[in-house]
Design brief:
Number of strands: 7
Strand content: 25-35%
Mean pLDDT: 94
Low-confidence stretches: none
Shape: globular
Strand order of the largest sheet: 1-2-3-4
Structural class: alpha+beta
């Protein structure tokens, strides 16, 4: 994009990803703060499982002018979301980069890549109903609220926002 480079993760991204996954505010609507070892395993899983198996995964978001990894944005195959397989477009940035439109810019690029290059037909975003910033990003992508879904291990349902390849582009 104009301000960002999106690329596959590598193990050298451990420190910047720990700034994302280790921040309680960033992880407030997720699974909570993660350890350094968890981040290592997550990156290794992307490299060894997600990219080879699905041809996609989360991508490092690099701020172009500083060449700094500021978070991730990418695609996640989910085998069962309310009874059907889905591909989720997910994004998280380090808190110091919030409020500059980077999440939307990265997510638009991933959306277009998913539909135009990977020829996916549908994308979703699973969003905690209280996460208004993430909802704003999803709606800027053209996603619309579709339904609520109760995921395993959750105490309350998430909203499913969805977009098909022919809508919103």
């Amino acid at each position: 994009t104009e301000r960002l480079v999106l690329r596959q993760l590598h193990m050298l991204d451990h420190a910047p990803m720990l700034r994302v996954f280790g921040d309680p505010e960033v992880m407030r609507f997720g699974d909570g703060v993660q350890t350094a070892e968890w981040v290592r395993r997550w990156i290794a899983d992307c490299l060894q499982q997600r990219y080879p198996r699905w041809g996609f995964g989360p991508y490092a978001v690099v701020e172009r002018s500083r060449r700094e990894v500021i978070g991730y944005c990418g695609l996640f195959f989910l085998a069962d979301v309310g009874g059907r397989p889905e591909v989720e477009l997910g994004y998280r940035l380090a808190r110091s980069w919030w409020g500059n439109g980077y999440a939307t810019e990265a997510a638009l690029a991933v959306r277009d890549y998913a539909f135009e290059t990977l020829c996916l037909k549908r994308l979703i975003a699973l969003i905690d109903p209280a996460n208004t910033a993430s909802i704003r990003v999803a709606t800027k992508l053209g996603m619309r609220y579709e339904r609520d879904v109760m995921l395993e291990g959750y105490s309350h349902p998430d909203h499913v926002y969805a977009l098909t390849a022919t809508a919103g582009q």
